[in-house]
Amino acid sequence: MTIFGGALVVLTGFYVFFVLRVYVGVSRLRHQPRGGSPLRAAVVIAARNEASSIEACLRSVLAQDLPAHALQIIVVDDASTDATAEIVRRVSAEQPRITLVSLPPRPETGVGGKPEAIRAGVEQSAAEIVITTDADCEHPPTWVNTMVSYFSPGTALVAGPVVLKAGGGLFGRVERLDFLGLVVSGAGSIGSGRPIICNGANLAYRRDAYLRAQENVQRSSNDDGTLMSRIVTRSLGSVAFAYDLGAMVTTPAQGSLRAFFRQRRRWAAVAGRFLDPTIYLELVLLFVFFATLIGATVISFWIPELIPAVVNAWCIKIAVDLLPLLTVMRAWGIERRWSEVALAELFHPFSIVIATVLSLVVPFRWKDRTLRR
Length: 373
Description:
- The protein is an alpha/beta fold.
- It folds into two domains: 3-25 and 276-371, no CATH class; 35-255, Alpha-Beta Complex (Spore Coat Polysaccharide Biosynthesis Protein SpsA, Chain A), CATH 3.90.550.10.
- It is 51% helix and 14% strand.
- The protein has helices at 3-29, 54-62, 84-94, 113-124, 143-149, 169-191, 207-213, 224-233, 257-269, 277-299, 307-332, 338-361; strands spanning 41-47, 71-78, 98-103, 129-134, 155-159, 162-164, 203-206, 238-241, 249-251, 364-366, 369-371.
- Helix 6 (169-191) crosses helix 11 (307-332) and helix 6 packs across helix 12 (338-361).
- It is globular, with a radius of gyration of 21 Å.
- It starts with a helix and ends with a strand.
């Protein structure tokens, strides 16, 4: 076996360890006790040029099954150039519990736009619990109640499930599974006691923990992963995952390969700044595993001796991935089609490697802002 093949074997072993830890974490979530007394909550929605979706989002938040006085809704209009603010004003005229915070136009700030908007909303809130979501998301009536129910006295942050809406053809279904894999990884890492990723489209935290986590840091550096990392490493409270259909948020799929990589490149560019260096090491090793797997697959066409190691690595990867993935799909009632699962598994390493490389070498614009590390 070549040195390349030996490296693939070692990296595959690391990957198995990582995914099995996720699986154990997911298994623990199923038995995680829920509790906590009713707490007043504030939903913060950062919106920039979301005129096509903001009303549907607000209507779903307004339909929550809890008293109106228990829920504050804050929309932070991040200098939109469309009718976003006008739509929010119209809806808020019917529903006074909606507050519109308008941020003035400002110079491009790289990755700071949305985190700064979230912070403005948190500072405006008066509730003990803040729940963030995106302006293109929709929510079940049980959403807020379920998220808040996961706050025990020592809990500082609760991450919730986000799934892509069904539809969009074959690529849309593959994208949905690929996205679910990220959510499962985040849920399992939290369940295993080693939180790594979360999604700001469905994230709740204590307001005081958020503000303490932001002390002595740049205003633009408080993205979701960084916030969770600070809460953990500064011992501001525990982190939980709301493993419950009642907390599930839906968001549209990208629907095309180009839009998919534009989104993933943006996510990679604004990845969390972890205070624990071992998390960086794990993420680097995951990237190296995927890159090595792709490289070995290509090289095996010219070096047949690599084929057994490549085939074994692919088979092992798929087998261990299915453990947490199928567990969550069964729990959340997500339809399983084996052909689409297989395509998503084959697509997965390429999506990670391509998006990461693009984020490092290609700056790009998103909603009229240049995103960069």
